[in-house]
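Appendix C: a fully annotated inverse folding record. The material below is reproduced so that readers can follow the format used throughout the book. The structure is listed first as tokens, followed by the designed sequence.
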């Protein structure tokens, strides 16, 4: 598997220079053949934004050549089930429904789907079925907003 923290360090500056935040990056697909970047901006993300970031990031990747295997680059908006990566992301979405998977069991479970009730610099507190769990960020495998679909097909996920 590729070193994602090295890639993040390499790709964050060019993404930010265009006025976007690099929310998350991952290798996906069969054998990790897709390098996927999730970007965000205050006004949201449109196709033109993804294309601009893709062009800029492709230049950096072509020069630095950090990925040894063949891959396809995808740049995407975070979507309704946006990933939560940094403490600031968790703090922004306190009160929302989240889905968190831990690397190891915490009080007998690895998967937590519930309301994000608190977030500080080291952990998030999630309420699941009336019980609160403090989940340290460094133990999280993944964390995402869990979209809540309301009547008339609309969804709500806040800010």
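Designed amino acids, in order:
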């Amino acid at each position: 598997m590729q070193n994602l923290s090295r890639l993040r360090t390499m790709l964050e500056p060019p993404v930010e220079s265009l006025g976007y935040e690099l929310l998350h990056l991952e290798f996906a697909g069969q054998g990790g053949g897709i390098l996927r970047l999730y970007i965000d901006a205050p006004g949201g993300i449109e196709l033109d934004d993804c294309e601009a970031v893709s062009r800029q990031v492709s230049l950096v990747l072509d020069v630095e050549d950090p990925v040894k295997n063949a891959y396809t680059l995808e740049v995407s908006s975070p979507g309704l089930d946006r990933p939560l990566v940094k403490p600031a992301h968790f703090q922004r979405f306190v009160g929302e429904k989240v889905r968190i998977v831990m690397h190891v069991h915490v009080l007998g479970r690895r998967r937590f789907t519930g309301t994000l009730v608190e977030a500080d610099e080291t952990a998030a507190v999630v309420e699941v079925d009336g019980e609160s769990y403090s989940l340290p960020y460094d133990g999280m495998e993944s964390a995402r907003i869990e979209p809540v679909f309301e009547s008339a097909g609309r969804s709500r996920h806040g800010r």
